[in-house]
Amino acid sequence: MTLPIDPVDLARCVDCGLCLPHCPTFRATGRESASPRGRIAAMRRVQAGEPVDEAFVSYMQECVQCRGCEAACPSGVPFGRLMEQTRQALRSTRRPRPPLVRRTLEWLAYRVVLPRPGLLVALSWVLIPLRRLPGLTGRTAGLRYRAESLMERLQADDDPDVHLFTGCVMDAWQRDTHRAALRIMRASGAHPGLPGPGAGCCGALQLHAGMDFDARRLARAVMRSLPGDDPIVVCSAGCGAMLKSYGELLETDAAHRFAARVRSFAEWLEEHGGPPLRDTGRTVVVQDPCHLNHVQKVAGSVRRVLAPAYRLVDLDDDGLCCGAGGAYSLTQPELAAAMRDRTLAAIRRAGGDGAVVASANPGCAMHLAAAGVDVRHPAELLEAALGASPDAGDGDAGESEHR
Fold first, then answer.
1. Is residue 110 situated within a structural domain?
2. The domain that contains 326 carries what CATH number?
3. Strand partners, 264
């Protein structure tokens, strides 16, 4: 197999090892093959003619694609791009061929359910009763949707001057977060709109899985649903990073212009100017999603918009991935659990048991919530600081209902 990657990108790695402490899979296993340097060495061997075997596939699948290594690399190795291109090659050649069950589940998830938000909402109605079954509580605690939330549609303003991208998973399972974001945007003087027909999955999960054709198709659909020049606000760190990369993905002028319109929720709020907030006096632990921190590089915006209302505490985990990684917690459960355990320990050190954690990514929120952590999106915390949220009570983020 010849990997469709630029040899110049491979050559940028000088084997210095500065990426090792910033790689969560290396930290969890201690294996060189589970590090960015080790994976690049494996890519080089395949490019030199070595056959692709199960070990090589395992090395590539174990990467959570957090891109923490990119932030630490002095040579500017585009590791995220190398990983995406390698996975595309493995999927297109089907070597070695994945088991039938996995192929079927991936087809259903990536090509049937996620691109159709209505179908995902319908499936959520099936999952609601499962959250109450004995033995399933720990696995499903991160799914925060409510029946009332699924029934109530988001409302757009007339003549909008900014748009909120709703996506797929967040629209079905964290719609209350979007309601909070819309309320904060309106309280800031904006008139938010919503995507038009055809919007759904942004394509991030498909691209990470090596399904580049599907990712491009979904990207074009998202662009058609959000015409014009108004800013596009995204509450999901992973989706925001994906929308900002549409120019590189599609390589068109229109895609580059679209990508330039995209802002994370906190980034837009900081630029636009937020509403007046009251000081709640409460402490919140801030968890930085990888795609907000390492890819978008705007994690500081979350702190700056929350600071007027909360006492903020950072984690001492070196910004390592919590193990969510989109579908990673499903495909690599043992590694994902090891990464989460490290994050949970850092949360306890920072805020003690029962700490309220701010996270701007749905995957991180659900992954941590499934372990019993009280996780809130910054939009929800800001809504509580407005003083009028029915679930916020007197503004105590630690006592308001985890919706």
1. no
2. 3.40.50
3. 234
Q: Using a cut of 0.85, tell me whether the model's pTM lies above it.
A: yes
Domain membership of residue 208 (yes or no) is yes
* Angle at the Cα of 13 from the Cα atoms of 207 and 327, rounded to 5 degrees: 25
Return the pLDDT at 121.
74
Q: Which pLDDT does position 396 carry in this prediction?
A: 44
Q: Could you tell me the residue range of the domain that residue 281 belongs to?
A: 275-386
What confidence score (pLDDT) does residue 263 get?
Answer: 98
Q: What is the pLDDT of residue 118?
A: 76
pLDDT for 14: 95
Burial 210-224 (b: 16+ CB within 10 A, else e): bbbebbbebbbbbbe
> Which residue ranges of the chain lie beneath pLDDT 50?
132-141, 388-403
Longest dimension (CA), the chain: 65
Question: Which residues on adjacent β-strands are paired with residue 284?
Answer: 312
| Residue 89 shares a structural domain with residue 148 | no
CATH code, domain with 15: 1.10.1060.10
Query: What is the model's pLDDT at position 137?
Result: 42
Question: How would you write the chain as a 3-class SS string?
Answer: CCCCCCHHHHHCCCCCCCCHHHCHHHHHHCCHHHCHHHHHHHHHHHHCCCCCCHHHHHHHHCCCCCCHHHHHCCCCCCHHHHHHHHHHHHHHHCCCCCCHHHHHHHHHHHHHHCCCHHHHHHHHHHHHHHCCCCCCHHHHCCCCCCHHHHHCCCCCCCCCCEEEECCCHHHHHCHHHHHHHHHHHHHCCCCEECCCCCCCCCCHHHHHCCCHHHHHHHHHHHHHHCCCCCCEEECCHHHHHHHHCHHHHHCCHHHHHHHHCEEEHHHHHHHHCCCCCCCCCEEEEECCCHHHHHHCCCHHHHHHHHCCCEEEEECCCCCCCCCCCCCHHHHCHHHHHHHHHHHHHHHHHHHCCCCEEECCCHHHHHHHHCCCCEEECHHHHHHHHHCCCCCCCCCCCCCCCCC
Beta 374-376 vs 356-358: how paired, if at all? parallel
292 and 253, same domain (yes or no): no
Residues 264 and 303 occupy one common structural domain: no
What's the confidence (pLDDT) of residue 19?
95
Cα–Cα distance measured from residue 313 to residue 358, given in angstroms and rounded to the nearest whole number: 10
Going by C-alpha positions, the residue among 79, 68, 1 that lies closest to residue 40 is: 79
